[in-house]
Amino acid sequence: MKKSQPIRMCISCRSRHPQKSLIRLKQDGKEIVAFDGTGRSFYLCQVCVRDEKKLKGLAKRFKQDAEQLARLLGTLV
Length: 77
Hints:
By secondary structure, this protein is an alpha+beta fold. It has one domain (about 5-75). It has 3 helices and 5 strands. The protein has helices at about 45-50, 50-60, 65-75, and strands spanning about 5-10, 15-20, 25-30, 30-35, 40-45. The strands form 2 sheets. A 3-stranded antiparallel sheet has the order 4-3-5. The chain has a two-stranded antiparallel sheet with strand order 1-2. The protein is globular, with a radius of gyration of 13 Å. The N and C termini lie far apart (about 30 Å). The mean pLDDT is about 90. It comes from Sulfurovum riftiae. This is YlxR domain-containing protein. Pfam families: YlxR.
């Protein structure tokens, strides 16, 4: 019997993907950091990570510097 895998939603495009294919992040104070196992988190899909327009929107939503967010995601991909 095949075990089902968890499905999570991308915070940017709201599409659903298997959890292992998404990038998990959290907001720590005023910064976006990689999820470390504590606190609330959110997921981004690979398509949104590469889309410059969506990254700009996320940076605005979380009041972040767009270049800093792009660098963080570049290290996680």
